[in-house]
Design brief:
The structure holds 4 protein chains of 4 kinds. Chain C contains 8 helices and no strands. Chain C is an all-alpha fold. In chain D, helix 4 packs parallel to helix 9, helix 6 packs parallel to helix 7 and helix 9 packs antiparallel against helix 10. Classes of the chains: A mainly alpha, B alpha/beta, C mainly alpha, D alpha/beta.
């Protein structure tokens, strides 16, 4: 069994890597396995976690029996969940062409809930908090900051401001406004360059792990 | 020979290669190692071929992506076979982790939290092994746990590896007395908070199902005040940040940490503030720590691989720019 | 009826969600909604899973190109379903968690799924290199800035950075590459991130309002647009 | 076996002494303690001199938690003066609660140096009073009891009033400009490169006779970025129907599949070509991140799309998808609101919608005045943010440096307006 597992792991790993050369039957096979298995796995996990544990058990709580076999008060059923169940059933109405339009109701519910929820969450944590964090004394509290920190503070304030100028929709990027927008783009480019450079290096360790599996665990060439 | 025939030949070669070495592994062959001379020659060859690519580029022939892929693969794979003596400069944050460990008397209790999963293992597993090796060698008692579901599994792998070492084997360490794995507990940072008052409430049993109070090593461990040193291996949330904010700030624990390279820079403020005694950052941190603990595991080897990969990426960025400037000169500066 | 009801539902639910943030007795609503969402998503799975099966069965029946691989996909899907729903080989029986160690589902997860997942993830190492090769070119002023920032961070995170600029005396240590990398991460990078985040927040507000007010209605199959 | 009485004698002695130290001595000590207890009635088991008595906590206050649904009571106190970091005698605190003047019940045990607790297990309509005991290693000192409190329900969270007001201002601005535009006033909106390119990208696919691939991210319908992707899909599908190109949309969530079909179908109907629509344009693949990527990569190299849209929420897979799309020579238009993935799109795609532009794209593509109006509303938000940053930074810097009071006051007001607690 252990031999089989190792060879299977080697076969699948090389199959995915073969895609780097070009699309080929080996990759197609591993891809087919991957898609089938992962889709099945998630159906199963969602079924037990969401449908069974959250919905079914929520509506029909487990009966708790004491040692004598009598029913003791347990968790109250949560009948609210049935609304969710009904919405889910409405979704399935798509399968019947005549009443298929009714599946838009649960969809409308989801869109409304998502839009409403995120509107306020993004507003609070993306707009309010970021503005508040930017408002800091440039020279530090009581002039305590070093030149290094002061330059940093000024850069943060100017960068945030000009970055916003860049995103402005109602004005053409011309004149002084255009120059400010161009400074904004520079800051955005530094941001993207920095994040990229930062991640390039850390991605290598993922590959090292796989190569180590191939030559170490599987073929035993590295100890 | 047609492309198809070539491809089939390569496939057959790969299969034969795998089969031979697999059989070799079963028969107990030695690991493949390049001697220092061979290693240097290989490096030289790779460097020369890169130079050749640069010349080709200057002449106007662009390399395609697959060549880049090939070089990345080579850069990562070859160093794993090489014997390269390298000077490892020990950074102060790694030395701090080691010094704190060194200051612990025999029999001290060390808590290690494994807060990562297999994808981060290349960076963090070597740290875990070196850490456990040091603890076992110096008779420190180790209590392991995990805030990530797959953490305790990684702990078991590390223990297995370290226990197979001759020196440690001869110590005849016993599970439950010298080390214990309390397993995973869901609840993110709240687990740490509850542990502040009572370990047992969070870990009623260890991962094998033995009740907490029946484990000799921990039955007298009530909370953090009975722990001499805490070490956290982390690749995200929950991780070092949460350990600092709760275990250190609220319960006064002495904490060291090992982090992935992505996360490590965010931890420096904690170290400057003294909330974290030391930090092993990424593959380099692992290699330095291995050097100090004299457990030469994979961190050192992996670090060479990583450095090689970095050189390759930088080399190709340079080649790419050479190609660009060359084409610009040819076509003039029309935009 | 067909068109108006969904718009009304979106409007009402959206408004309730917004104001629940400010009304303490409604603060549990967020959880309830996400619970509803989970339940709806499971029902939708019948559609998604059914669609997957239908497509591959069709490929098989019509002997379309590569139909052989459809057998594999279907087989994997059905095996996982059977293993997980009937909890085949689960040491804890039908009442145990489907992902108990030793169960067929979990065995396949460990020996087939995990290697595939980590290898697919590891492809990133190759693509990161090829993208750097192609994209980090000093094409114009913006690209040059991107390149410089990326290069400084790249060098700063490897031992080379120290090797190149380690000679710079302590009093000018700001100019050492690793320190420059930290400065870039903490100052200009932070500024850019903030501008992007504030923009995103405002964009979400505007788009959500368009959805809630029914101005944006393509998703509802509105054919008057 | 012969016995060795001479050698065994010392070991008897050793055993005896062991027995004495480990068994007899403690029992003697214990017996004496019991005598002590018998002599003086009411004293604890441990003699007085050994009991570590610690000072109680002071200033214990129990108060209803402000602005909640009446489900929490806040406790605060000043820790015992014996609660010191070094040589502290206090090992913790126990919180006791009396419900409607009933029996005290211990509700939690806290670590040393704690000075407060939020009791979340209370119900409306009941009265609660509390006391806190300070624990030493062998004694417990209770504090005085608090006055009874009843948890209250509040209907509006006044702490967040500023958030509500600014949200209303911004929302009002968006609605105002929508209305203005609806009444026919022309509003200027500048060109956005990535969005301008959409038309050309679709046209190119038509010319080449190759399909257009639309990837709506990997998150479900409960993420705004997916919603943004679907709103853009509506516009894009309409153009595709007009051009008579082919669209293919593999998705990783069943709900997105349903919504995607609904959207494309409607667009084809609006274009007057309902017959050209078919359900197979949208396919569910798998919920798993990298399984989905494996399949989409395969689709890209096999179908060779001329145009790829990558719009929505992306994680590590962003670069894998974008690089593969690039390798087959497709024009790629990407957009996401995840700052960490933006650089990869910038590097590997032809056009990238950065954050806010993703949410604005659909309005922009629609070309309808009222939709454009909403973009104007967003700009009001940006203007407020920019003004706040400018004024805030100036006043806080100058106010601090030269101690100008009115400037400090402005700073205080600004911080309060933008605080989220």
């Amino acid at each position: 069994m252990e031999h089989f597992a190792l060879w299977l792991g080697g076969f699948l790993t090389l199959g995915i890597f073969s895609f780097l050369y070009k699309d080929n039957p080996w990759y197609k096979l591993t891809e087919a396995i991957y898609v089938g298995i992962s889709a099945g796995y998630f159906v199963v996990v969602y079924f037990w976690d969401n449908f069974y544990s959250k919905f079914w058990v929520g509506v029909f709580p487990h009966k708790r029996l004491n040692e004598a076999g009598e029913l003791i008060a347990g968790v109250e059923p949560d009948y609210w969940l049935i609304v969710g169940g009904v919405l889910g059933l409405l979704m399935l109405m798509r399968l019947l062409p005549k009443v298929g339009w009714i599946s838009r109701w649960p969809l409308a519910f989801i869109v409304g809930a998502t839009a409403g929820l995120w509107l306020i969450n993004y507003f609070a944590s993306f707009v309010m908090v970021q503005i508040q964090n930017t408002v800091t004394p440039l020279f530090g509290m009581d002039y305590s900051a070093s030149l290094y920190v002061i330059v940093g503070n000024i850069v943060v304030a100017v960068g945030t401001f000009t970055g916003l100028v860049y995103f402005f929709f109602s004005k053409e990027h011309k004149g002084a406004f255009g120059s400010a927008a161009r400074v904004g783009i520079f800051f955005l480019m530094i941001t993207f360059g920095a994040s990229f450079g930062y991640t390039v290096m850390s991605r290598m360790s993922l590959l090292i792990g796989r190569i180590d599996f191939l030559f170490g665990d599987w073929l035993g060439m590295i100890k | 020979m047609s492309t198809k025939a070539k491809e089939i030949l390569v496939l057959a070669l790969i299969f034969a290669f795998s089969l031979i070495f697999y059989i070799g592994k079963v028969l107990g062959w030695e690991a493949v190692r390049f001697s220092t001379t061979v290693s240097l020659i290989v490096i030289l060859l790779v460097a020369l071929s890169l130079l050749w690519i640069l010349i080709l580029t200057i002449r106007g022939r662009l390399v395609e992506r697959r060549i880049v892929f090939l070089y990345v693969g080579i850069a990562v794979a070859l160093p794993l076979f090489m014997t390269l003596s390298q000077r490892i400069a020990i950074s102060p944050e790694v030395e701090a982790v080691y010094n704190t460990l060194e200051g612990l008397p025999e029999g001290s209790k060390v808590l290690v939290s494994f807060d990562y999963d297999p994808p981060s293992a290349p960076e963090l597993q070597p740290m875990a092994e070196a850490f456990l090796y040091y603890c076992f060698e110096h008779d420190l008692k180790v209590i392991m746990m995990g805030l990530w579901p797959q953490g305790p599994m990684q702990a078991n792998l590390a223990i297995e590896k370290v226990l197979s070492d001759e020196k440690i084997k001869s110590k005849n360490l016993k599970y439950g007395e010298d080390y214990v794995n309390l397993g995973f507990q869901a609840g993110y940072e709240f687990v740490i908070q509850r542990m502040g008052s009572d370990f047992r409430s969070m870990f009623p049993t260890d991962y094998r199902g033995t009740p907490y109070e029946q484990i000799p090593l921990v039955k007298n461990v009530k909370n953090f005040s009975n722990i001499d040193y805490c070490f956290n291996l982390s690749s995200g949330f929950p991780g070092t940040r949460e350990w600092v904010q709760i275990a250190v700030d609220r319960f006064g624990v002495t904490l060291g940490a090992g982090n992935t390279a992505v996360q490590a820079p965010q931890m420096y403020p904690f170290m400057r503030a003294g909330q974290l005694v030391g930090l092993l950052g990424g593959m380099v941190g692992a290699a330095e720590f291995e050097f100090l603990t004299k457990w030469i595991g994979k961190g050192t080897k992996f670090m060479i691989s990583q450095s090689f990969a970095h050189v390759i990426v930088i080399a190709f960025i340079i080649i790419g720019n050479v190609a660009f400037f060359r084409s610009k000169r040819k076509t003039g500066l029309k935009r | 009826m067909k068109r108006q009801v969904p718009l009304i539902i979106t409007f009402l639910i959206g408004m309730i969600m917004i104001f629940s943030f400010f009304i303490p007795p409604l603060e549990g609503l967020e959880q309830t909604c996400s619970l509803f969402f989970d339940v709806i998503a499971v029902f939708a799975f019948f559609l998604g899973g059914g669609n997957l099966m239908r497509i591959h069965v069709n490929k098989l029946r019509r002997r379309k190109k590569d139909w052989g691989f459809s057998i594999v996909t279907l087989g994997g899907f059905i095996i996982m379903l059977a293993a997980g729903l009937l909890k085949i080989g689960n040491p804890g029986g039908i009442a145990a968690s489907p992902t108990t160690e030793g169960a067929l589902l979990q065995e396949i997860f460990t020996y087939v799924f995990l290697p595939l997942q980590s290898t697919m993830y590891a492809l990133l190492a190759f693509f990161v290199a090829s993208a750097s090769y192609r994209a980090f070119r000093a094409k114009n002023r913006e690209a040059t800035i991107l390149l410089i920032a990326a290069f400084v961070i790249l060098l700063g995170r490897t031992p080379f950075g120290m090797m190149l600029t380690g000679w710079i005396p302590e009093s000018f240590s700001v100019l050492q590459v690793p320190n420059m990398a930290i400065w870039i991460m903490n100052s200009p990078n932070l500024a850019g991130q903030r501008a992007i985040m504030i923009g995103i927040g405002l964009g979400v507000i505007s788009m959500s309002l368009r959805l809630i007010l029914g101005i944006e209605r393509t998703y509802l199959g509105d054919d008057s647009a | 076996m012969p016995s060795h009485p001479t050698t065994s004698r010392p070991s008897y002695l050793a055993m005896l002494s062991l027995l004495f130290t480990f068994f007899l001595l403690p029992s003697i000590v214990l017996a004496q303690a019991e005598v002590g207890q018998a002599n003086v009635e009411g004293t604890p088991i441990v003699p007085d001199s050994e009991q570590i008595v610690v000072a109680p906590v002071t200033s214990l206050i129990a108060a209803d938690h402000k602005y909640d649904d009446g489900e929490m009571i806040d406790l605060s106190w000043v820790p015992s003066i014996d609660d010191q970091l070094i040589d502290g005698k206090v090992i913790g605190y126990k919180v006791y609660r009396l419900e409607d003047d009933g029996e005290p019940q211990m509700i939690t045990e806290l670590a040393p140096s704690s000075n407060g607790y939020n009791d979340q297990s209370v119900e409306r309509g009941k009265l609660y009073s509390y006391f806190v005991s300070t624990l030493s290693s062998n004694a417990e000192t209770p504090s005085v009891r608090t006055a009874p409190v009843e948890p209250q329900r509040e209907w509006l969270n006044y702490e967040l009033l500023n958030v509500l007001i600014i949200a209303l201002v911004l929302g009002g601005a968006v609605i105002y400009f929508i209305e203005t535009a609806r009444r026919g006033k022309k509003l200027f909106v500048r060109k956005i490169a990535g969005i301008e390119a959409v038309d050309e990208a679709i046209g190119r696919a038509t010319e080449m006779g190759r399909p257009i691939l639309f990837i709506p991210g990997i998150l479900d319908m409960d993420d705004v970025q997916t919603l943004a992707a679907l709103t853009i899909l509506g516009r894009v599908a309409r153009m595709i129907a007009d051009y008579d190109s082919k669209i293919f949309m593999p998705v990783s969530r069943s709900l997105v599949m349903t919504a995607g079909r609904e959207t494309i179908k409607a667009s084809y109907q609006a274009a007057g070509r309902p017959d050209a629509y078919n359900d197979d344009m949208v396919t569910y693949i798998t919920d798993e991140q990298f399984g989905y990527v494996a399949a989409v990569d395969g689709i890209m190299v096999r179908e060779r799309p001329a145009t790829v849209f990558l719009l929505g929420a992306f994680f590590a897979e962003s670069l894998i998808l974008a690089e593969t799309g690039n390798s087959v020579g497709a024009i790629q238009i990407a957009g996401t609101a995840r700052p960490a993935q933006l650089p990869f799109f910038i590097a590997a795609c032809d056009f990238t919608l950065i954050g806010e532009e993703l949410f604005a794209a659909s309005a922009y593509l629609s070309g309808e005045p009222k939709q454009m109006g909403s973009l104007k509303g967003q700009d009001v938000g940006k203007a407020i943010a920019m003004a706040a940053i400018l004024i805030g930074v100036l006043t806080v810097t100058i106010g601090d440096a030269w101690n100008v009071e009115w400037m400090q006051n402005i700073t205080t007001v600004l911080t309060e307006i933008f605080s989220t607690k």
